[in-house]
């Protein structure tokens, strides 16, 4: 998976608890992205980063925050998880236009 | 707002047949159109991509056809094989958007023996 790891790979949590997902890359790519994948919706962009400490919102950013303190790490935080955030979360990296490389995904269940 | 519409949602094709997946877009600023392939339990992987200055791109059994005036593009899988069974996503991006991709909703392809 092009030098991208995500942790944890599976997580079950309860409504109202904070959750942090980690994406780590060894490719030194500039751009990093967080998506969620849900049936019937495809992949939707949550947040993305265009450099260390440079982040911006995607189309479904409500309830999520991100941080990127190092080139290789991009964290996604759910401040107070809700059942609607049950999903599969993918991290992706890119250095060239349109060519994104995806991690293996994190399956999150919020009870 | 669904800027890239993909159809069909699912597709069953016999081995050796042609699989065709269609996408339509609205944003005329889009200038790069990749297709991603995703197997169960895996992340999507780039399959093939096209720019709007060409009408067709072929890589092995996979071909993208592009119609700029109609704002449509399609993926053709020739001689479909059971190993092609996966979910396929079309996507689009434009210059100056930090390589952000807008994805279609996906097509689940099953190739039967």
Which terms would index this structure?
heterodimer; A: 111 residues; mainly beta; seven-stranded mixed β-sheet; four-stranded antiparallel β-sheet; globular; B: 113 residues; six-stranded mixed β-sheet; five-stranded antiparallel β-sheet; 11 strands; 52% strand
Which regions of chain A have little confidence, pLDDT < 50, spanning 5+ residues?
none
The proportion of residues forming helix of chain B, as a percent range, comes to under 10%
What percent of the residues of chain A sit in helical stretches (DSSP H or I)? under 10%
Q: How would a crystallographer describe the biggest sheet of chain B?
A: 6 strands, mixed
Tell me what you see in this structure:
The complex is a heterodimer of chains A (111) and B (113). By secondary structure, chain A is an all-beta fold. Chain A contains no helices and eleven strands. In chain A, the strands form two sheets. In chain A, strands 2, 4, 5, 6, 9, 10 and 11 form a seven-stranded mixed β-sheet that branches. A four-stranded antiparallel β-sheet of chain A has the order 1-3-8-7, with no helix packed on it. Chain A is globular and about 35 Å long. Chain B is globular and about 45 Å long. Chain B has strands at residues 4-7, 10-14, 19-25, 33-38, 45-50, 56-59, 62-67, 72-77, 86-92, 102-103, 107-112. In chain B, strands 2, 4, 5, 9, 10 and 11 form a six-stranded mixed β-sheet that branches. The mean pLDDT of chain B is 93. In chain B, β6 (56-59) and β7 form a beta hairpin. Chain B has 113 residues and is an all-beta fold. Chain A binds chain B through residues 1, 4, 31, 33, 40-45, 48, 50, 56, 58-59, 90, 92, 94, 96-105, and chain B through 1, 6, 32-34, 36, 41-46, 49, 89, 91, 93, 95, 98-101, 103-106.
